[in-house]
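Lecture notes, unit on protein representations.

Consider one protein chain, 64 amino acids long.
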Amino acid sequence: MSEKYLTATQVAEMLQLNVETVYDMVNDGEVPATKVRGRWRFDPSELREWFNANGSSGKRETRA
């Protein structure tokens, strides 16, 4: 394991989303994540693959 796992807050900052939106995306199976001791963690290489595969279509519209 060469890269450190990211937190939901770090992913939210990277994607310029609210952290609750990131959790919603995880719960909906839209973004790859792993639960470690009750907390979601994100593998940077899996996130890059996901983002490259989904591009702008991977973004979720914000709820009004």
